[in-house]
User: What shape does this take?
Amino acid sequence: MSLRINGVDDNEEQERRWENLPRELLWDIIKRVEETETCWPSRSILSCASVCKSWRTITKEIVKSPELSGRLTFPISLKQPGPIDFPIQCYIKRNRETSTYLLYLGPEPFADDFRRTSKTYIGKLRSNFLDYKFNIYDRQYPSQDEAAAAGGNKVSSPRKYKVGTIKYKNYTIHKYRFHSIKGPRKMKCLMKMMMNYSTTTSSNNNKVDYHQHPLKLKSKVPIWDEECQHWHLNFRHYDTLAFDNFQLVSAADDEDDDDEDEEEEEEKIILEFAKIEEDVFIMDYCYPLSAFQAFALCLSNFDAKPISD
Amino acid sequence: MSSSVEAITVLSSDGDEFKITVSAAKLSKPLNWMLEDVCFSDDCDEVPTIEVNSKTLVKVIEYCEKHAPRANSGASDSDAEELKKWDIEFMKMDVKDILFHILMAANYLHMEGLYDLACQTAADLMKGMTVSQIRKIFHIKNDFSSEEQEQLRRQHPGCSFD
Assistant: This one.
């Protein structure tokens, strides 16, 4: 049998083969890229999105927001709300020498402590000088419309948006001092929540919009254990001393007094922070917090210095 | 000759004739239907054409012949293991040319196993690759204009086109 190879295909057609692959086929391929790669940052799927227009379209259809998929894919995922049902578990590692904190999702760090110089600088956490109040800033580029309104086609520079405040209540430490142990720290925070981000990342403008009404969060009050003489919180995986650790639950709108405690036993925990080793901490967060906000909240905890100590 | 033939002849889109055993042809749904509908015998004039070029058809038939015994009789784990290794070797091919055609052919011939294998191979080629590396592997031209790239970069800090 003779094998006759037909004349070489039209060059143009040949060049654009993978670009013009039928969408079902491209879908099946990119879906596999997404499924086989779970560690963040997942470079391959990210690369797929920038290869060419047709690939970008399909990739955006496949990759769901963290709220739905429980996965972080694009850099923007860090600012999108976490999943509703199962928290995303991260680790924070502290480097004492450089006093930097790295956020880990798996074995690889994916964000550092918002250093401005870093290419991936995404936001900022700033405290007042007494270290009991913190503001969280989000760095964003103005939308096209805003830039146009500002008059000018020059490249717009990113802006700082205040997206949350955290307050620590120091006096609780005084309050419990007569127990001669460290009392639980109380924190409250207001977070501007992202507008319901489209379920896929298909919106053309990836600027993050925020709801007008902020989300109120407060730390869960630990339980005083008479036997062991310490405060403790029930963590998913650990039952640890409560001083460094905290759990945040959503705070009801009306409450402003600080001593109503007992009622919200079974409230859903939105952020859980616990020390598990000398310089390793777990950070579990879920909807509606984003990794960025959760990380900022945890970092503030490192810096907040109890006045009475 | 009886109507139960061992192998059938098919034509590629280039007009070349190929022999494929009946058990191997059964891996493809359309070919299987054809086998059920048409009585193949030596004096049958009609030779079905498969819209796949010769170079690709050779590979497709090679795959079918290798996988047919297992598909028809079921196989032990060690066979499966061996077959997996064979698949990996089999898929080491020119991406731009053959892999593309294999993928299209597997889709066209409704061959689930080969289709999965081709998709996975393409996906694996992208593992850990940068954008420009992927473009190089698949011979894809960057069709984003520099303005579009600039805009996307601004909207998605950390987004790279290189």
User: Anything to note?
Assistant: Chain B touches chain A through 49 residues (CB under 8 Å). Chain B has a mean pLDDT of 82. The first helix of chain B runs from residue 22 to 25.
